[in-house]
Write a structure and sequence with these properties.
By secondary structure, the protein is of the alpha/beta class. The strands form 2 sheets. A 6-stranded mixed sheet has the order 4-3-5-6-11-10, with helices on both faces. The longest helix has 17 residues. The protein is globular. The structure holds iron/sulfur cluster (SF4). Iron/sulfur cluster (SF4) binds next to helix 15.
């Protein structure tokens, strides 16, 4: 397959690893932002190919993992209503709220549907005019344009029984939060290629300059990821902190301008609470007031939400690169994919799930 197979080529992988080995002289901590990148690294054993000086830590780019407990609890309360069809991506169904998950609501008779696109949820609303249809609109800048499109389409079609429960977050404010923390260990970033395919990477030079960190826009295949690591290590070793594009077959500096326009038409920037991390100012996207009719939080009064997080789960520290999954005392013991205590063990992009699935349960350096 053109544009894909060549980025999985074993001889190319060996060459890039050899070059990283040749140039590295110091220990460096590099964070891949995206949970999809984390899983590709683990699945392909890239972490085990790198020289011991390079430590990869895993960022907050897993939408399911960072959706706040309060919003998960609101989703559970809305989905339990008898006149509601609640639509979600499959990953969200097993994410633990304060008491139960969407599967447990389904088991009690709630109408939960797994969809692959918010536009499918609009169709469900058209087909069920006597029901309220709610889509759980989670994700980063990558999913925001499609979620915005669903609202515009519902409005254009006069579909009044459709609304979205919004948990949209943005990458650059999270990078600021990680780098400005006194506990920060990150010295370079692999930026998430799919987010940059929408937003470009014009926002990143300011971050690179402010904190003195190199940033490589990086894809998801083994050669993409290793090229991102190589371009980051080259800069770290040279004392540079520039933004480079290691995913130029997909990403341009300015990004997808029509998608950005739709996103801005429907959403506005707001503060957002990230699960396990806390509130990051101006890190979220919320529906603009003129779309209140499509805002599930406005449409449904779910009463006072009292959240209760697992006291053991350290997912927030893992998502900031401060700790790794095997450092959680519950990892693989009290917490596993069958009995998850945190969202990072459930999501297909979660770091705990990646370590469990690919058996990276060896002890790691703090
Ligand atoms: S192993 Fe489970 S309890 Fe520990 S951080 Fe991961 S999700 Fe949380």
């Amino acid at each position: 397959m053109r544009y894909l197979e060549e980025f999985r080529d074993a001889s190319l992988v060996k060459n890039v690893v050899a070059e990283i080995n040749r140039i590295v002289t110091h220990p460096w901590v590099i964070m891949e932002i995206c949970g999809g990148q984390t899983h590709s690294i683990m699945q392909n054993g890239l972490d085990q190919l790198l020289p011991p000086q390079i430590e990869l830590v895993h960022g907050p780019g897993c939408p399911v993992c960072v959706t706040s407990l309060e919003l998960v609890d609101k989703a559970l309360a809305i989905a339990a209503k008898p006149d509601v069809i609640f639509c979600s991506f499959g990953d969200m169904l097993r994410v633990p709220g304060s008491s139960g998950d969407l599967f447990s609501i389904r088991a009690k008779g709630g109408q939960i549907r797994v969809v692959y696109s918010p536009l499918d949820a609009v169709k469900i609303a058209q087909a069920n005019p006597d029901k309220q249809v709610v889509f759980f609109a989670i994700g980063f800048e990558t999913t925001a344009p499609a979620n915005a499109m669903s609202v515009l389409q519902a409005k254009a079609l006069g579909v009044e029984n459709y609304s979205i429960l919004v948990s949209q977050v943005m990458v650059p404010p999270a990078m600021h939060a990680i780098l400005s923390s006194p506990l920060n260990r990150v010295q370079g970033f692999l930026a998430a290629g799919h987010v940059c395919s929408v937003m470009g990477y014009w926002e990143y030079p300011e971050i690179a300059d402010k904190y003195g960190v190199p940033i490589a826009v990086t894809g998801f295949e083994p050669v993409d990821l290793l090229n991102g690591v190589l371009m980051t290590v080259q800069q770290l070793e040279a004392g540079k902190h520039e933004v480079v594009n290691a995913y130029s077959r997909v990403v341009s500096k300015e990004g997808n301008i029509p998608a950005q326009k739709i996103l801005k038409q429907v959403f506005q920037v707001c503060d957002r609470n990230w699960r396990g991390i806390g509130t990051i100012p101006q890190s979220g996207l919320c529906l603009r007031p003129q779309f209140d009719a499509f805002n599930a939080e406005v449409r449904f009064n779910v009463g006072e939400i009292q959240t209760k997080e697992s006291e053991i789960c350290i997912a927030g520290q893992i998502l900031q690169g401060i700790k790794k999954p095997p450092q959680c005392p519950a990892f693989g013991v009290l917490c596993n994919p069958e009995n998850p205590l945190g969202a990072t063990m459930v999501s297909s992009e979660g770091a705990c799930s990646a370590y469990y699935r690919y058996a990276r349960n060896e002890s790691v350096n703090a």
